[in-house]
């Protein structure tokens, strides 16, 4: 490492003291904490982002957000060149970097890591980092800290893209590395034009049914509400009413947003009993989650929730339907057939009724451990992989090889049978691949896809919600001496240690109709999470309580004193 580079790093890190007595850990969401203690961490993540760009010889992203957390929190995460999350191999180094207590210890860590990873830190190679932030008041000063971190690496350039949704930044990083236009107007143009294509391909018999094309959206008083105001002006066949845009003095994520609506199952602030019968949706604070809901009666705040599992089911049904039209034997013989492998990926937290419904619909369902990274990885193994968590985070991935085949097939069909049902199916699938954000879950693009599929099918939110009835469930936490005593397998559905615990859980689950229960260690605290579902709420509560007692018997504080 050049002396100039060494001095730059020492000087830069001496300006930001790490918080005392606080150990931050880089997870799926990056680093998150109270905004007042984050400056040093964000500065160091700026340096990390520059190193990542040098290592990959690609553009990377850095996002300042704390998603659905309260407004006084903030966070920072890196977007890898693919548009996905920072590779897990770099997470331990991110933790070490954040907690280094002196500029000298910090420099020593970087020197060692740069040598190990063979990163060209000579000032000859350039690095480029795209920066974005959400609407939190603390975002501006944290962004400045990130810029100072980036500028302490020779040859590194920070490009500030201003206030964005998290998925917009992921989309832009992916687009930039694919040689496409990576601007906010390009993002809006791609998703709005793909939506228009899908609207144009709606069957005439459905078009004439005059279904309600209005959706009312809770913007969580965050960046999503702000961006939705821009997007809605670009759409003609959809009327979007936006509430909680952040402009009316409401606090971000305070009694609003997808996380609140999904967990509490009540109307968010700004909605009331007068909204009975409307199709409503909720974004989270940085617009990477989406849930729908309707208000069933004007006598209470309770809602009928349409969660990520139901969004997944809607997407999977539509894509399966288009694939079956595409591969039907037409009158013309084209020997260019490719039976796409369509996969649906869920976690053990997905409601059992949704899994049964998907399997009964002839779909291939596989499970992944909890966390978007695991779901994304599994989805990428299919020609078309769809994943969602119940919280409303998910997307659809299309393999490059299958999309190339689809483009060619569409061209063939255009010559042989333009305007045929098969060609329309090919065009719909191509449009979905452009509308959906393949980098990460994106509430804005998913909202448009839900809306156009409902229009295509002529379905109300009530018809959609009736696809299946969720099984009642209950989640509990049990404090334990050591959470690492529990090890799981089969995508966290089976506990393999301590010995005998799974057999005890199975015996308890078997006592209840449709009983299912699993346990898993928390990633952040010494607790074991218990999830139970059964045919009635009373049974689910009882099963969860019984299994919590089993966990306590095997691992709780009483067990350590025996």
UniProtKB/TrEMBL annotation:
Binding of Mg(2+), residues: 67, 284, 286, 288
Cofactor(s) this protein cannot do without: Mg(2+)
Matching InterPro entries: A-D-PHexomutase_a/b/a-I (IPR005844), A-D-PHexomutase_a/b/a-I/II/III (IPR016055), A-D-PHexomutase_C (IPR005843), A-D-PHexomutase_C_sf (IPR036900), AMG1_III (IPR049022), PAGM (IPR016657)
Catalytic residues of the enzyme: 67
Protein name: Phosphoacetylglucosamine mutase
Domain Alpha-D-phosphohexomutase alpha/beta/alpha: 56-89, 125-177
Any one Gene Ontology BP term: carbohydrate metabolic process
């Amino acid at each position: 490492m050049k002396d100039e580079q060494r001095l730059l790093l020492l000087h830069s890190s001496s300006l930001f003291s790490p918080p005392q007595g606080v150990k931050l850990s880089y997870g799926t969401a990056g680093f998150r904490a109270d905004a007042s203690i984050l400056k040093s961490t964000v500065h160091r993540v700026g340096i990390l982002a520059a190193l990542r760009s040098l290592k990959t010889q690609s553009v990377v992203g850095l996002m300042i957000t704390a998603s659905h957390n309260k407004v006084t929190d903030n966070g920072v995460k890196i977007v890898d060149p693919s548009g996905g999350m920072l590779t897990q191999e770099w997470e331990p180094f991110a933790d070490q970097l954040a907690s280094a207590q002196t500029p000298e210890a910090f420099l020593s860590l970087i020197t060692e890591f740069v040598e190990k990873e063979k990163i060209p830190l000579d000032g000859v190679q350039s690095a480029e980092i795209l920066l974005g932030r959400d609407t939190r008041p603390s975002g501006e000063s944290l962004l400045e800290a990130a810029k100072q971190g980036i500028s302490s690496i020779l040859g590194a350039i920070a490009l500030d893209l201003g206030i964005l949704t998290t998925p917009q930044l992921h989309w832009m990083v992916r687009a930039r590395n694919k040689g496409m236009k990576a601007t906010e107007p390009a993002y809006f143009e791609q998703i709005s034009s793909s939506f228009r294509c899908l609207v144009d391909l709606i069957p005439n018999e459905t078009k004439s049914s005059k279904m309600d094309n209005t959706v009312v959206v809770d913007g969580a008083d965050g960046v999503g509400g702000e961006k939705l105001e821009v997007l809605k002006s670009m759409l003609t066949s959809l009327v979007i009413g936006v509430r909680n845009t952040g402009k009316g003095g409401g606090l971000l994520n305070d009694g609003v947003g997808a996380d609140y609506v999904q967990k509490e199952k009540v109307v968010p602030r700004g909605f009331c009993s007068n909204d009975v019968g409307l199709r409503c949706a909720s974004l989270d604070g940085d617009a990477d989650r989406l849930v729908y809901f309707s208000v069933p009666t004007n006598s209470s705040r309770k809602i009928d929730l349409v969660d990520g599992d139901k969004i997944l089911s809607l997407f999977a049904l539509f894509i399966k339907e288009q694939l079956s039209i595409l591969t039907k034997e037409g009158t013309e013989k084209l020997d260019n057939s490719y039976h796409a492998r369509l996969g649906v990926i869920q976690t053990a937290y997905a409601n059992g009724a949704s899994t049964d419904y998907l399997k009964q619909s002839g779909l291939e369902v596989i499970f992944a451990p909890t966390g978007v990274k695991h779901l994304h990885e599994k989805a990428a193994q299919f020609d078309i992989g769809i994943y969602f968590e119940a919280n409303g985070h998910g997307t659809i991935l299309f393999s490059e090889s299958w999309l190339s085949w689809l483009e060619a097939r569409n061209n063939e069909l255009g010559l042989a049978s333009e305007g045929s049902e098969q060609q329309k199916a090919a065009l719909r699938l191509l449009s979905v691949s452009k509308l959906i954000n393949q980098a990460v879950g994106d509430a804005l693009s998913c909202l448009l896809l839900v809306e156009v599929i409902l229009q295509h099918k002529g379905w109300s939110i009530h018809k959609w919600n009736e696809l299946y009835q969720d099984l009642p469930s209950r989640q509990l936490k049990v404090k334990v001496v050591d959470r690492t005593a529990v090890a799981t397998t089969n995508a966290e559905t089976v506990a393999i240690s301590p010995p005998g615990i799974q057999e005890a859980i199975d015996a308890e689950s078997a006592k209840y109709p449709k009983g299912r229960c699993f346990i898993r260690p928390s990633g952040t605290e010494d607790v074991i999470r218990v999830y139970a579902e059964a045919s009635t709420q009373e049974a689910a509560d009882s099963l969860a309580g019984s299994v919590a007692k089993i966990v306590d018997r095997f691992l709780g504080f009483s067990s350590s004193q025996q």
